[in-house]
Structures are given as structure tokens and as C-alpha cells.
């Protein structure tokens, strides 16, 4: 096992519901969460009947994620998936992790090794062409932040389109894809019903995913080698 460069940063959030909701029913019950953070996605998945193992580079995150994961491996995903994680998974989850890696292709290739024959990956990537980020670029601002699209630990930037290409060139067939974001209503938001606002957001994201999508979402399966 490669000794990881342990991170002091701890990622805690509410979990990525839009991505988890995209996973087809009947996919299975055994999952590996690559970049599990404090276990927020694992907590939701556990409530849905999944048995989740996690991988993180942080000892602090392992302590938190252990409440929701069967096992948590401290490992640097720049080197792929640890052998100790085993194989036979129905799902490999990669929620906002590929953009942090020096070589995301290696993790995508390694995921094939640990999936079972019918297994899938679920991937979320930040969309660098989100409308508010475009405005910043137009104003000449290319500034890293402590979180979000321009997180200081992001090594790569993706759009909805380039994210799909990333998966395809690594031998995956995209089964489901979409974005989660919103239409810029600003103060008008207060005047609209929640249902109308949600409908408008869905319409905008469908019409122009690279403009209105804050994050790009994909479910994909490995293409059998004899079919490539």
C-alpha cells in the first residue's frame, strides 16, 4: 500500500443527492466511495440499503466516515484504488474527486478492476462554464478559493461536454447524464413559487447544461474489452 500524503482538510457536506438519485434502482447494494470525505454520501446510501466502503487521504475523515462505512481505507487516489479494497462492487462513486487528481484516467481505469460485470460508476464534476464563473472570467478574474468551482485544490477543470468525453475515452459508456444547477433569477426568486422555480431550473439545465449546470452528473458502465 502506498503511504498517502495525509490531508488535514476535512470535507463535510449534506451529500450529493442529485448524483445519488441518478443511480438506477436495482444497481446493487455494495459500493465503494472514492473520496468519501466525512461519509456524507455513505450516510445517505446506508439509509437506502447500501453497504459502503470508503477511500480517503485523510485520517481525520476516516474517523468521521467510519460511522457510515463498513471499511475506510486511507490511500492516495492518485495511485488508483488500494488492493485492500477488494473487488466485486456494484457501484464505484466518484463525487467531486477526479478534478483533484494528477491523473484522473488512472482512477477511472482502476475502477474497472473492482467493479463486478454489471457494475457502474457514478461521477460528479464541477462545471467550469457555469454562468456565474463565466462572468468572473469576462471580468478578468481567475482566482482560486477555499471551495466551489475554483477550489484551490482543483488540478483540472471540466465542462458537461468534456466530462462525458473523459469517461468515453477511458472505455465507459455513459448510461445517464445531466447537470444540477439553476437559472439566474436573483431577486425575482422571492416572487416565484418553489415548484415554478424548480421547473425553470430543470428547463434551463436541459436547454444549456454548460451554461446553467453547477455540477455535471454521470452514470456509466465499462465497455467490455471485446466490444471496444
TrEMBL record:
GO terms, molecular function: methyltransferase activity
Keyword Transferase (UniProt): yes
A Gene Ontology BP annotation from the UniProt entry: methylation
Origin superkingdom: Bacteria
Record keywords, A-Z: Methyltransferase, Transferase
Protein's organism: Desulfomonile tiedjei
Record has Methyltransferase as a keyword: yes
Protein name, UniProt field: Class I SAM-dependent methyltransferase
